[in-house]
Amino acid sequence: MDYHILTLFPEMVREGLANSITGRAMDNNLIRVNAVNIRDYAFNKHSSVDDYPYGGGAGMLMQAEPVYQAFCSLQLKEREGCRVIYANPQGRVFDQALAAELSKEKELVFLCGHYEGVDERVLEEIVTDNVSIGDYVLTGGELPVMVMIDAISRLVPGVLGNEESSVGESFTDGLLEYPQYSRPPVWMGREVPPILLSGDHAKVDEYRLRQSLIRTRERRADLYEKYRQRAIESEASLKPKKRKLTKMIEEIEMEEIEKGPTEQ
Ligand code: SAH
Fold first, then answer.
1. Is the beta carbon of 114 within 6 A of some atom in ligand 1?
2. What is the pLDDT of residue 264?
3. What pLDDT sits at residue 243?
4. ∠ at Cα 141 (136, 142), nearest 5°?
5. Cβ of residue 58 lying under 6 Å from some atom of ligand 1
6. pTM (2 d.p.)
7. For the range 247-250, what are the long-range contacts, defined as Cβ-Cβ under 8 Å and sequence gap of 24 or more?
8. Is 20 within 8 Å of 125 (Cβ atoms)?
9. For 66-75, 112-121, 155-164, which range has the lowest pLDDT when averaged over its residues?
10. Ligand 1 close to Cβ of residue 145 (< 6 A)
């Protein structure tokens, strides 16, 4: 995967991504990070890249030409069809599904804004996707782009040591991940659920699915509701005995009713 990042702070993204798993992926040439300094394409003698917005208002705006020239300088494998992502709070909110979709591309271009943002005309000219990392405003697009590259890269084959590790994780199947435990079996009087030590893989899988359902219901009612609807619909054509997920969901919801309201 080739990432091209247009930014005023190339060191920030290069250094941020050069550590840990993304760093190893760069060393192994599974991902390549080409951070281009937009300031190198400033067209005036002061190397300025920002100016006051027409019509007034607070702050400065990144000008169109340096961004455009930085974009034109990129050596892309295929300029046509290459996705150019502008990180900004007005975009579609980034999620695991978009990370998975983008991980299938061979190269991606990211544009990091700064100050009050970027002159709209260059955005119209080059951007294919507006993507936000959440409903809050940051000072620049560098952190959002690092967040996206991190999430995308761990779905690129070979980047995670064990290919299995991205399977069954939170969001991949619409549920949050189950709680996990490692050694020792008892810590501060808290025991690891005995079933996890039983060696019975079918039981462990069932236990984990149940825990995922309980956890998602408690922490992300919105995701749980979507999952529940889909599960019930997909099992509707099966004989009642075979509707395993539906049964598990009913049991969990019954247990909750029997427990009564929990004290806050
Ligand atoms: N004036 C703009 C915000 C500018 S913030 C507005 O009100 O919409 C400056 C830069 O930070 C943006 O150009 C963008 O690249 C980045 N940024 C800020 N918040 C972001 C978010 N939630 N997601 C992605 N990028 C963001």
1. yes
2. 52
3. 95
4. 120
5. no
6. 0.93
7. 248/206, 248/209, 248/210, 248/213, 249/213
8. no
9. 155-164
10. no
Q: Where are the beta strands (DSSP E) in the chain?
A: 2-7, 32-37, 50-51, 61-62, 83-93, 107-112, 129-132, 186-187, 190-191
pLDDT of residue 111: 99
Whether 1 and 28 have beta carbons less than 8 Å apart is answered as no
d(CA 156, CA 144): 19
Q: What are the angstrom distances between the C-alpha of 221 and each of 48, 74, 153, 210, 217?
A: 48, 44, 28, 15, 5
Residue minimizing CA distance to atom 1 of ligand 1: 116
Whole-number pLDDT of residue 160: 95
41 touches 48 (CB < 8 A): no
Tens digits of residue pLDDT in 219-248 = 999 999 999 999 999 999 999 999 999 999
CA of 103 to the centre of ligand 1 (A): 23
Judged on CB neighbours under 10 Å (0-12, 13-18, 19+), 164 is exposed
Ligand 1 center to 109 CA (angstroms):
17
Contact 22 CB / ligand 1 (< 6 Å): no
